[in-house]
Amino acid sequence: MKKYLLGALLVIGATSFGAVAVPVTGTGSGGTAAADLPVKVVGTVLDSKTSKVLVVTPMKNAGVSSGSLEFDFGNLIEGQNQQLDGTFKIEVMGNGKPVELTNAPTVTLVGGTVAGNDNKKATVNVNTGDVANSNDVTLTYILSTLAKQSDNSYLGTLTVGAKVETGADTGTFVDTSVGVKVKVDNVSMTS
């Protein structure tokens, strides 16, 4: 019984991280298995030779498509409060290379319940169970001050906190209601 439980836990653990899991078959010391790991290649070709292009690239906690920040909190318990950080790079491309940013970009949060006049903090209540509007988990989104990496790039940080409320239903939560808006001004269009 213990080996079946251990096997089930290994399969659950492997598949929860997107792993490919196949059973090993055979007898004695002749067990064999083969697995195929899918490969996906995605990219975008931009025309930065004849125009300027604002590029915002997730660096830490990049989503599967590399076009988003994703925060996976895993398993949480009632009363637990956990925070995760994600970073993103901001640059403008022109003539095939990054161009100088004379002003720091403006970065704000959109969506959720935004607090303050600077739009740097937002909260969202999400449900995990079958009861609508039960507010099982409170998500807090906080944008940090941009860090200048060079004359042509800035690094932003978004911290997301998840607090499991008392009496929360068991289940999964997903929130896509909050986003990061990046704006650049005074970009030279001649160089």
Shape: flat
Number of helices: 1
Between the first and last Cα atoms, what is the distance in angstroms?
A: 70 Å
Rg over alpha carbons: 22 Å
Number of strands: 10
Low-confidence stretches: 1-17
Topology:
Blueprint: H1 2-16, E1 53-60, E2 81-94, E3 97-99, E4 106-110, E5 113-115, E6 121-126, E7 137-143, E8 147-150, E9 153-164, E10 179-183
Antiparallel strand pairs: 1-2, 2-3, 2-9, 4-10, 5-6, 6-7, 7-9, 8-9
Which features does this protein show?
191 residues; mainly beta; eight-stranded antiparallel β-sheet; 8% helix; single chain
Compose a concise summary of this entry.
By secondary structure, the protein is mainly β. It has one helix and ten strands. A hairpin with a 2-residue loop joins strand 2 (about 80-95) and strand 3 (about 95-100).
What report would you give on this structure?
A hairpin with a 5-residue loop joins strand 5 (113-115) and strand 6 (121-126). This protein has 191 residues and is mainly beta. It has one helix spanning 2-16, and strands spanning 53-60, 81-94, 97-99, 106-110, 113-115, 121-126, 137-143, 147-150, 153-164, 179-183. The relative contact order is 0.18. The N and C termini lie far apart (70 Å). The longest helix has 15 residues, at 2-16. The protein is built from 1 helix and 10 strands, in the order H-E-E-E-E-E-E-E-E-E-E. Residues 1-17 have low confidence and may be disordered. The strands form 2 sheets. Strands 1, 2, 3, 5, 6, 7, 8 and 9 form an 8-stranded antiparallel beta sheet that branches.
